[in-house]
Amino acid sequence: MSKKTDLSRRRFMGAAAGTLLGASALSSLNLNAAPVKNQPKIDPQAFSSNLLETDVLVIGGGMAGLFAAVKAHDAGARVLIVSKGRLGSSGLTPFAKGIFSYDPATANMSIDEFVAKVSESSLGSSNPVFTRQLAEYSKARVEELKSWGFFDSALYNNSFMRPIEARGIPLHERIMITHLLKEQGRVVGASGFSLDDNRILHFRAKTVVLCTGSGGFKSSGFPLCDLTHDGTVMAYKIGAKVTGKEWNDGHPASAVNSGSCYDNWHGQVEEKPNITSVDIHHDLGVDMNYTAYVLGPSSQGMGPPGGPAGKGPGERSDGPPSMEQVSGGPYVPEAFRRAGGPPPMPPQQSGFLAGLFGDKKPSGPPGMQGPKVGGSSAGMAIHKSEGLVPVDETGLSTVPGLYAAGDALGSYMSGGIYTQIGSSLAGSAVQGAIAGEAAAKASQKAKAVELPASKLAAVEEEILAPLQRERGYSPAWVTQVLQSVMIPNFVLYIKKERLMQAALAYVEELREHHVPMLLADDRHKLRLAHETENMIITAEMKMRASLMRKESRCSHYRLDYPEVDDVNWRAWINIWQDEKGQMQLEKQPFGTWPV
Amino acid sequence: MPIHEISGCIGCEACVKSCPTDVIQMDRERNKAYIAYVEDCQICHLCRLYCPVGAISITPEKSIPVMVSWR
């Protein structure tokens, strides 16, 4: 028995001694038995460490990362992509099948009208700068994708590889980035480890574009179990402001085979992508949670959502034709109400490409048929509403040199609600391109900063810590506890002060006591350990932001503050870590940039 | 079972790379992929779709049964 183990045992005995309960608990622990020690299958001392250098580092291999890398390269910078998964086969990108294109020749409204209508649906919570960007540039990005063969296959890796290979952009896949590096007040690189061999990689860069998506709590039935808010949390840790944590995606899963993403989406992943056109809605998801809360889940499913079939994960879907109406619940603006009967059938997508590539067989998201259950997308906010706070239209964060795009950027392209089918994938392409180009230009003015060896050694220590610990908690168990605390309908969706305070107390306990004791015995578990930490910090943000917003608006619904409060809450909530490591929150009025 | 079986693997590693949740690993000695962490399979089918020889079979149930609020 090591000295360390012996010491912790003595401490435990000291704390428990003197009470009958303590004595009886101790006798059942069989303290004479040797403790079960974590015995890693890999040697944490055997990890090699490499340093790679570039001008622009793109983190993430989805739609935003693809365009960030391509446009940064085309603007003259040396670029490198690093991704936890494979290009076009990780995050939400591979499952998103609709991409929005605003075509001025055929659109049924002007860009000004489009921006105004999105703002109306989002109750003012959208940022018109990013809504406009989506409309202005989506068609150009879609045309580029077409030229790379994106619309020719249901699988995106081949078409994504074409522009990357043509430009000779170095690509490092299956590397989990865990740390952003900051020196002299700006981001100077990132560090992580390989999932395939015992390697730690450090990247030195002049600018970084985070394209890491958002995340959830690894719930069953939604294809985001690899998305754990990694980018948001590592940026938060170096001082970046993040936003949007109170908004919630309320997407259901089918009650039958509810753990199967494939079956929930009726095999939609096998379809080729298609193009969507202007069709603005106010489809919440949380309204279904409200109905289920009031009436209980029913054989008709969770209750009345509305709107056309979504074409990607996280997009609103049709409800069953027979809907139960309940009084109260989230506010829906007049122009977007569908009183009484079932929602209208989705309009046929028009256009040459849709006709050419559209799939005739029945498909689509859960809710198209059969009963469904909630919580499958728990922990995920609304597309483009959570992530780093932008200081300008390029997606630059509050940390100099650090940009974000796609679901990693809190752009509020459509506010605290998802308003336009296909706009998430298009928004990632548009924002990725703009951030990549801006990061390339900024890198030309930035000096390369040396990464201090002591800093890299400390980072390596933190990366490998779960392998080094002898005793602690498995990431799977801690994740399960977190899911039990956060996912219930009465915590994450139908919010109220006392239950959120209770959940927050749990989450703080996990952060303070369990994060420092997460265990790993191989690289897969090492990944899970870091992902679990990121989910716990996100959970704390979600509870604190939800407690702070004492009103209901869009996908944030509080039973104790059910009304929209335009006097006090025409504002976003930003979250950051102060110098003492404390989580701080502030309001930022709608329509402003951070001060 | 989610990802159920890999049969007829040619060792190309497409499934290992395309799995978002790192469920599949390579047996370097046999040069074949194997199911390493079935409990983390999100049943998204990307591995099956990327496999060039149709070696992967998948069933719709999670390895740990999912408890739902109502059925």
From TrEMBL, chain B:
The lineage of its organism: Bacteria, Pseudomonadati, Pseudomonadota, Gammaproteobacteria, Cellvibrionales. This is 4Fe-4S binding protein. Residues 1-29, 31-61 form the 4Fe-4S ferredoxin-type domain. It comes from Microbulbifer thermotolerans. Keywords: 4Fe-4S, Iron, Iron-sulfur, Metal-binding. It comes from the Bacteria. GO terms for molecular function: 4 iron, 4 sulfur cluster binding; metal ion binding. The keyword Metal-binding applies.
